[in-house]
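Bumping my old thread because nobody answered last time. Still need a sequence for this structure:
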């Protein structure tokens, strides 16, 4: 299977799917260019994602900048915690991801969640070596390395900025405006498809781990107390699950179940996450991921991002290894609360009650400066403390005195001195911070997986052939049109067919070079579902017909040219 990856990467370069960027200058690790076929396939996958996760779900789509100022990432926590573990080789000086070195050479499956001293111990205990030059790594310090690309906004360095490491923050920071477009009504979702940047320590496996990649993310804002997902619509979806508790036990195994049963059994604890797993699975299948090499794996508790409450990954199997294709996380109110705290804007939504409520509001005298001298001059602390008590625990005010704890000491205040009173107030609702459910898809890894799972080798008329069994919906080229031979009459008809099919919105390639067998092979390797050949029968017979060849079976049929565009468009649209 390893060979499949090697062959695929070679085919990808030769046929214009993807290749390392800046090759003329020696290339640079972790940057890839999608060629004509790759860009078209990636575009089709993105369109399919948009159709399902934005349009069909009634969610909005935005397009935010890729560079954002430092305060955004101070608030989001990325500046402090978006790190990987790095170990330098004492011999060759190459840097490696310490957790990958551990995972690749020991039985530890989730080294990312280990504390640094433990990773250092494992490296020493197993006498792990540098993947580049085989020098021993024992005794080397493991350090954290922040993955964000830093830059400066404008001249000088007074305004640092960062390339966004996820598209999500571009949605969160605009929440105060986006909620207005949603008419202040929860739930609502905002999607974004765009580039993200991570200065990966060791980019690897071609486009699976790069330093610049495309994400398709949905941030779905909910009121955790009021909103429920439409679980019934996905209850029957079959899924392969690998829950955390299975990963911790020996002889662990995956579970075949349905979304409905998994929620009922408490395997998927978060119903919103379950809902999005339920719509993701058939979608992955529709773009061509092999369902025998697909599962959802729950994150172990140490593995979760700094913001996530529960998280499942969609995983695809490549060369016998599972790779993460998407993460489905309940980010709770983490991001919006942080931006609310760090910025001048409000990241809340007004939750209107069904009926106005009368509530008691306890207040204290805001001017208790006269108390200052009694408590070391810090009257404001007393006011803050009393206000908290007034809201939280009214019983503290019953009776003659109230107890206030200040810097570890308890003071007794006579109630009449605090200005304490209770008023009735009618309120229509309250401000809440929405929670966020986030399906976060990596597009490049998905394109790779789709190609890998579509890679086929067989024999046709005693000759070996390679073809890509791509779904017609995403195939970059849908039909190849060939005149059988170099002949003006045949070429004229072929030109007309090309024009008609393009008018019908199909992506068509015209090829008149080489023998017909070679031309078929070329399209097989690109994964073109159909080829149309114009031959002498086409121009001689009364009813104009052409040969239509199907990629996977190589079966050929004669079909009338007249409704060829409709017949093919129908097949493409399923
Ligand atoms: P990993 O553990 O593989 O580094 P992650 O857990 O950090 O990934 P997320 O932050 O959940 O990834 O990002 C969401 C998605 O973005 C991933 O599921 C993946 O498909 C994609 N992604 C993340 N990092 C990269 C990368 N360096 N290259 C390509 N795609 C990536």
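Sorry it took so long. Here it is:
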């Amino acid at each position: 299977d390893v060979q499949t990856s090697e062959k695929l990467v070679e085919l990808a370069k030769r046929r214009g799917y993807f290749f390392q960027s800046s090759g003329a200058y020696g290339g640079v690790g972790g940057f890839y260019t999608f060629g004509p076929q790759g860009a078209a396939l990636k575009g089709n996958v993105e369109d399919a994602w948009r159709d399902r996760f934005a349009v069909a779900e009634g969610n909005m789509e935005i397009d935010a900048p890729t560079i954002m100022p430092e305060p955004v990432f101070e608030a989001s926590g990325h500046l402090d915690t978006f790190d990987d573990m790095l170990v330098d080789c004492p011999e060759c000086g190459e840097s490696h991801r310490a957790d990958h070195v551990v995972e690749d050479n020991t039985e530890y499956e989730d080294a990312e969640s280990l504390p640094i001293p433990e990773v250092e111990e494992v490296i020493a205990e197993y006498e792990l070596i540098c993947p580049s030059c085989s020098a021993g790594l024992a005794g080397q310090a493991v350090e954290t390395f922040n993955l964000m690309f830093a830059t400066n906004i404008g001249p000088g360095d007074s305004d640092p900025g960062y390339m966004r490491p996820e598209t999500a923050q571009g949605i969160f920071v605009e929440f105060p405006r986006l909620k207005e477009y949603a008419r202040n009504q929860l739930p609502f979702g905002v999607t974004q498809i765009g580039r993200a940047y991570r200065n990966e320590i060791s980019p690897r496996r071609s486009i699976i781990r790069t330093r610049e990649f495309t994400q398709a993310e949905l941030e779905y804002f909910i009121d955790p107390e009021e909103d429920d997902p439409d679980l019934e619509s996905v209850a029957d979806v079959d899924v392969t699950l690998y829950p955390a508790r299975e990963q911790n036990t020996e002889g662990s195994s995956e579970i075949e179940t349905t979304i409905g049963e998994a929620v009922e059994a408490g395997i998927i604890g978060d119903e919103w996450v379950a809902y999005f797993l339920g719509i993701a699975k058939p979608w992955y299948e529709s773009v061509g991921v092999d369902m025998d090499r697909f599962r959802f794996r729950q994150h172990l508790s140490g593995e979760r991002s700094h913001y996530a409450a529960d998280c499942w990954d969609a995983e695809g199997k490549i060369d016998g290894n599972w790779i993460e294709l998407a993460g489905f996380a309940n980010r709770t109110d983490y991001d919006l609360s942080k931006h609310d705290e760090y910025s001048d804007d409000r990241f809340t939504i007004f939750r209107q009650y069904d009926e106005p409520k009368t509530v008691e509001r306890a207040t204290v005298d805001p001017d208790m400066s006269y108390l200052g001298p009694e408590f070391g001059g810090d009257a404001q602390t007393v006011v803050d403390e009393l206000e908290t008590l007034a809201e939280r625990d009214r019983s503290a005010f019953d009776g003659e005195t109230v107890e206030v704890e200040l810097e570890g000491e308890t003071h007794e205040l006579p109630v009449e001195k605090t200005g304490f009173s209770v008023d009735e107030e009618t309120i229509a609702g309250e401000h809440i911070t929405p929670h966020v459910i986030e399906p976060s898809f990596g597009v490049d890894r998905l394109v790779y997986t789709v190609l890998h799972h579509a890679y086929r080798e067989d024999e046709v008329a005693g000759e070996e052939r390679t073809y890509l069994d791509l779904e017609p919906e995403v195939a970059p080229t849908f039909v190849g049109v060939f005149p059988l031979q170099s002949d003006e009459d045949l070429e004229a008809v072929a030109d007309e067919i090309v024009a008609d099919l393009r008018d019908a919105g199909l992506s068509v390639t015209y090829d008149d070079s080489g023998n017909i067998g070679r031309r078929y092979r070329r399209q097989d390797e690109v994964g073109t579902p159909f080829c149309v050949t114009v031959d002498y029968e086409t121009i001689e017979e009364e009813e104009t017909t052409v040969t239509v060849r199907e990629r996977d079976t190589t079966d050929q049929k004669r079909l009338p040219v007249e409704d060829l565009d409709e017949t093919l468009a129908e097949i493409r649209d399923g």
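The mean pLDDT is 90. Let me know if any region looks off to you.
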